[in-house]
Amino acid sequence: MKIQNGQIYLENVPVTLIAQTYGTPTYVYEENRIRDNFRRALNAFRKYYPNFRFFYAIKANNNLAVANILRQEGAGIDAASINEILLAQKLGLGGDNVMFSGNFLSDDDIQQGLKSGVIFNLDDISILPRVLKYGKPEFLSFRLNPGYGACEVGDFVCNGGPNAKFGVHPDQIMDAYRMAKEAGIKRFGAHMMPGSCIRDPEYFKFITGLLMDNIGKVGKELGIDFEFIDLGGGLGIPYKHEDAPLDIDKAAQLVAEIFTEKLNEYDLKPPRLMMEPARYFVGDAGYVVGTVHSIKNSYKRIIGTDVSMNTLARPAMYGAYHHIYVNGREDEARKPVGLCGQVCENTDFWVKERMLPEGITLGDIIVVENAGAYGYAMSYQYNGRLKPAEVLVNGDKHWLIRQRETIEDLVRNVTVPDHLK
Ligand code: LLP
């Protein structure tokens, strides 16, 4: 993003052109920023541990145009569901390039997961006998819940520790791998994902130590050579402008140091080191472009926009902060106002008070920052509001990569029995 003479550009495309061409609200992704984010992180980790690879957690943004950028950069796919495995297949990825990390699987999930031939990452020891009823996965890992988790978005997004539903308890991890080995499974990995959006490099060191202490004992006692060890996602981005970015080089260095130290301590063959981030790659490369449609002066002054909670769910869901720019007015003096969307719920009053340009008026274009991860992917149709369009920009080029929904999308799967017509 850049601002020139007051006008906001995404890469080199003016947001006014986006709004005129595609309407609003529209998600826009900067291709070069996604590539830069990916390369910065990959170079940092490979610098300290060359046998390193990223899988992209496609749940954060499953637009195939976006996912293809990351595939081109060399990422595999972390899939949370059977449909995400199918999305990976649409990218031409399968086998060892995809990991299935579903949780609380149904028997149908298990059968389809086995059929797909991807790496099976089990969230609980109880799943293994259920898997073995249907077949033997070639390549298996368990997701450890190391008894600790963290997230800067708040407890909502904390994926580890006693209050998380995820992962195998440390007391069960040895038995889990023993059972798998005795069943004749030959290829193993190890995994955890205890937190999301962390900007403290020490956290990554800490959780790597936790995983290695659990997995190291398993490797040693059962004679398992892990082919990969996956630290999950969690690489954070600053949502507030006063927050510092993650020092990715430092995180990579600290992780590689403790990783190598623990490999030696437990006498493990050096495996591939992996992570499966999403937010770090796509979060700050995505924006929502919206329009100011209505302004109310009542108990408060409230700016009404078409960026509603169904368009961007994070503020209403987690109290998450997203910075807002107003096109053409960034140089103006500021006044405290509220800002909302158009849904009939008060959680849609998603900015209760913020300093925004004082001249903000009907028809102004707003740009909501850091919306590339868990933005469109968590949008929905409440209040009959349709899911927005998605656009990719690269230099001064722009492409529609997902059409805005229409009324047909609201009724597509609905049938009305004859007696009600
Ligand atoms: N791997 C697994 C198994 C995951 O569950 C997740 C995210 C990731 C990787 C990617 O994590 P990341 O690098 O993006 O932190 N909706 C929330 C975030 C939920 C995270 C869910 N799991 C938000 O909007 O902040």
Task: Please tell me about this protein's structure.
Helix 2 (31-48) runs parallel beside helix 9, helix 7 packs across helix 8 and helix 8 (201-222) packs parallel to helix 9. The chain folds into two domains: 2-29 and 283-411, Lyase, Ornithine Decarboxylase, Chain A, domain 1; 62-277, Alpha-Beta Barrel (TIM Barrel). The longest helix is centred in the middle third of the chain and has 22 residues, at 201-222. Strands 4, 15, 16, 17, 18, 19, 20, 21 and 22 form a nine-stranded mixed β-sheet that branches. It is α/β, with parallel strands linked by helices. Helix 3 (64-72) links the parallel strand 5 (52-57) and strand 6 (76-79). It is built from twelve helices and 22 strands. Bound molecules: ligand LLP. Residues 57, 60, 78, 101, 153, 157, 159, 193, 196-197, 232-235, 276-280, 314, 373-374 line the site of ligand LLP. Ligand LLP is lined by residues 57, 60, 78, 101, 153, 157, 159, 193, 196-197, 232-235, 276-280, 314, 373-374.
